[in-house]
Amino acid sequence: MRMRAVWRLWSPGRGSRSVGDSARRRINASCPRAAYLGLLAGMALKPVLGKLGSKRVVLASASPRRQEILCSVGLRFEVVPSWFKETLEKSSFATPYKYAIETAKQKALEVANRMHVKHLRTPDIVIGADTIVTVDEHILEKPIDKQDAYRMLSRLSGKEHSVFTGVAIVHCNSKDNRLETEVTDFYEETKVKFADLSEELLWEYIHSGEPMDKAGGYGIQALGGMLVEYVHGDFLNVVGFPLNHFCKKLVELYYPPPKHTIHHIKHDSIPSVETFENLSDEENDSSSPLQYKGAIKLDRSKTHSSGGVCSPGSSNIIKPNCMMPVENQNGVMENPDKFPSKILELLDGFRASKALFVASKLKVFDLLKNKGVLQAVDVANTINSSVCGTERLLDACAALGLLEKTLQGYSNSDSANIYLASDSEDSLHGYIIHSDDHLWPLFTHLESAVKEGTMQNYRAFGKKSENLFQDSYYQSMEVKQRFMAAMHSIAKLTAKDVATAFDLSQFRSACDLGGCTGALANELVQKYPNLKVTVFDLPEVIANVSHFQPVRQHTAPVTFTSGDFFKDNFPEADLYILSRILHDWTDEKIHMLLSKISAACKPGPAHVCLRRGERFKCDLITSYIYPLDIEEMSFLKGLTLWSSAV
Ligand SMILES: Cc1cn([C@@H]2O[C@H](COP(=O)(O)OP(=O)(O)OP(=O)(O)O)[C@@H](O)[C@H]2O)c(=O)[nH]c1=O
């Protein structure tokens, strides 16, 4: 058996798109269950990351695999390798996993203590881990030399063995300059069966150098994978870090959903958390009716001081009392301190929006779409920005799921490539820039708008609001193009839904009033080949629509007619469309517009569809449409308003 072919499948820098990708590919190839668990954990970790985002997290490990696994799911952490010598007396532990847990704890506590004392920087959380291999009641750690590797591998040949990883999550707190620590620990076991290994193969593998820094003398993620007949359990646990179990622990620590009230938590911001509800966790099983399965054991007496030795295998999981479910007067279980995720989301939402706006404006997503993966410094140089500022922006985008962060650098998420790169077919870039340049300044005056009941264009831009389009959007070429690009990008995205929301096949002609670049009109003619659609908009708009038109269109082209729908007669049609129009105008202007449409409509039943934001205009609209006999009135997901008649 030759081993070169799979060399460095796991190792970073193979030119794959991201480390996470290469890892997942490898896992998929060798262990589908592990791949599933790995991906599952990655998905659920992200919301938990929000909890860890503001904390200083330290990984007390020199293992590049552990760094890679945690990095690939977007966890932000510092790496401070532990100086703890793995010299605990193995025979003093009742089981191998207790030894692994204790070693993991001591690794983490050593780092917490050192950072507190020497570096005067107390981390919030320190993660330690220790992986061991057990076979025939022997614990195998990393081989000390080639002979040792040979001894280990020949012991494993042709047999099933166990890989245990003990993990310790240490929460730190500095009180009166003293370090207080609370430890949560767990372990994971995976069974691995090796094929019979010939002497030649063994030595070829040993000479590859791969065994030397790995427990049991092999790396399942690389050449060592060729030695393996089967894996039962979590693949990443063998590689060095049980990501799935780690995620479960984080969920338990930060989002303990009481079993009895879980259905009440509708607005929790961690949709994937329930994924972990069904996974068993014997360690934390509780018979107490007040504790859900997997509940956290409260035992502050087991709080450890840094440097102290914990009793092997103890499970000291921290959780403030206030997070425990309690029974209310009606006997219903409630979590008294339910985390106000929704409110915090609203509270912080503006920061997330602004991070997206700034990254879009600086063309970060365009750059990464073209270059693949880049380090912060390279992005900073290209966008002429500071390295530290750029890195923070990139990290924020990674935390928001817009970018992926790995050891190799930052790359676009799939949705960033589709929606955020400015040259993508479905790009929302135009709408993002419009939101930043136009809506953001307007919304900063929301308080004045509420108090005065007036539009805030003058405050935001020094422009009168009566003539919104002439004054604000179309007087400079740059603003005009920006506005058109914005409307085009959002209309294009929603056009398919609008076009298919009703069966419009009965109509022969339609007029999209204020239809801008014709994004919706073009979708309509695709869907209804017998429909002739005219876009009616201001002359400044119609003069610039050409480069927004689809390249290959097999249907009759859309017609563009210029005019002002307040002043001029608009084209005759069976169907009038008002999409994202009414919210721009005062009630007087809307009165004028709807009266004109009402007069232009031919007698017959009408269809009205409002986008959500225009629901408040509903009464106003129906008073115009009622004479036309409304057939259908519905609210579409953020879409449009129709008033039509036959
Ligand atoms: C079985 C197996 C193990 N490993 C590595 O073995 C080291 C275990 O040693 P440790 O003492 O737990 O960790 P370390 O590397 O010394 O780092 P530290 O955490 O600083 O003690 C870790 O690296 C693991 O990835 C693999 O990469 N692949 C495998 O298939």
SSE layout and pairing:
Layout: H1 19-30, H2 32-53, E1 57-59, H3 64-72, E2 78-79, H4 96-117, E3 125-135, E4 138-140, H5 146-156, E5 160-175, E6 178-194, H6 199-207, E7 228-232, H7 235-239, H8 243-254, E8 304-305, E9 326-327, E10 333-334, H9 341-361, H10 364-371, H11 376-382, H12 387-399, E11 403-406, E12 409-412, H13 414-420, H14 429-443, H15 446-452, H16 457-461, H17 468-473, H18 477-501, E13 509-513, H19 519-527, E14 532-537, H20 539-542, E15 559-562, E16 575-578, H21 587-600, E17 606-611, H22 618-625, E18 630-636, E19 641-645
Parallel strand pairs: 1-2, 1-3, 13-14, 13-16, 14-15, 17-18
Antiparallel strand pairs: 3-4, 3-5, 5-6, 6-7, 6-8, 9-10, 11-12, 16-19, 17-19
Helix pairs in contact: 1-2, 2-8, 5-6, 9-12, 9-14, 11-12, 14-18, 18-19, 21-22
Bound molecules: 5-Methyluridine triphosphate (M5T).
The site of 5-Methyluridine triphosphate has 26 residues, from strand 3 and helix 7.
- List unreliable stretches of 5+ residues: 1-45, 260-326, 610-646
Bound molecules: 5-Methyluridine triphosphate
Distance between the termini: 76 Å
The number of domains is 3
Number of helices: 22
Task: Describe the sheet with the most strands.
Answer: 8 strands, mixed
- Which overall shape is indicated by the principal axes computed on the Cα atoms? elongated
Class from secondary-structure proportions:
alpha/beta
Give the C-level CATH assignment of the largest domain: Alpha Beta
Percent of residues in helices: 25-40%
- The CATH architecture of the largest domain comes to Alpha-Beta Complex
The averaged pLDDT comes out at 75
The percent range for strand residues is 15-25%
Give the strand tally.
Answer: 19
CATH fold label of the largest domain: Maf protein
Gyration radius, in Å: 31 Å
Pfam family, one: Dimerisation
Keywords: Hydrolase, Methyltransferase, S-adenosyl-L-methionine, Transferase
InterPro entries: COMT-like, COMT_C, COMT_dimerisation, ITPase-like_fam, Maf-like, SAM-dependent_MTases_sf, WH-like_DNA-bd_sf, WH_DNA-bd_sf
Protein name: Acetylserotonin O-methyltransferase like
